[in-house]
Amino acid sequence: MPRSSPADIEQGGTPLRNHDNYEELSMIGVGSYGTVFKARDRSNPSNIVALKKIRVPLSEDGVPFNTLREISLLKQLDQYEHPNIVRLLDICHGQTMEREQQLVLYLVFEHVDQDLATYIERCPPPGLGSARIKDIMFQLLNGVDFLHSNRIVHRDLKPQNLLVTNGGNVKLADFGLAKTYDFEMRLTSVVVTLWYRSPEVLLGCRYATQVDIWSCGCIMAELFRRSPLFCGQSEVDQLDKIFQILGTPSEEDWPENVNLLWNAFQRHPSSLIQDHVPEICNDGVDLLKKMLRFKANDRISSAESLHHIYFSSSGYTPSMSLLTSMSPNPSLTPPSGESQGSPAVSPRSTPNSLSCSASDESADKSN
Fold it and tell me: pTM of this prediction?
């Protein structure tokens, strides 16, 4: 079979453009399977984009199927312009390196100046206010629910892969590890950054959408703490760090046919989550504990999370009509008095003025 060339990978029936249409300005960072650059659209110099450069190994049949699947997934997501998913604006081809058997592709995304990790760092003491944390989590879970309702697992949720616009909108990014799932997937490669990795992934068990919920719980705790909740140095150490806070699970709850034995870990009693996550209200504790359950099947789902009293008590109410086909998630009704322009996103000013102090959070502190 002849090898497919860049021109054979079409975008809506049109061959891919050359990446020379974009001028690289600076490197943003290294993401899953690629390097991301800040770039300018040469045809529209005022248009700044994020250019993700990926090297695709070529087989005898051309571009590998998994690469085409990832691009197809991103394009499929983008056509619905979900407010909490980063926009894929263009796909371009670079050079084909015959000797290295590689093709360079460029994924062009909307540019957002900061990720959530940077946003947290830039917020002055005492840190993010409880109302702002609630809004960030609602938007994060809204994006995750959109993925899960369409059989997509992100598999690498962490503050560095969440973008925050100057208007306060949270967008899921870096889909290099994202995958559509069929029932439960067997772990085939390392997924999810260690500190946000769920117990079933650490143990090499089958996993599904619940891995993203665990990561969301870790992110929620970090928003309050301004530092990660579980900071292990290895898979075993990560599990032990989890057990030190949540308690060592019972032997009955330990999964079968895993390399790590239950009796290899020290017995730790569970501790109060409030001792490790300051300023969190009682409803927040309940949601966090439901996201951080050891057994994946006992974890709360993204849809259930959006209906949790932690959000509903502040006026966040998802539409009751949840769709399961690839379509935009239903509108989410923001608290009374906020903008109806986009789900749970109200007009906001610059990041440094986004309710960073807890002093004006009297409603949440009453919980």
Answer: 0.81
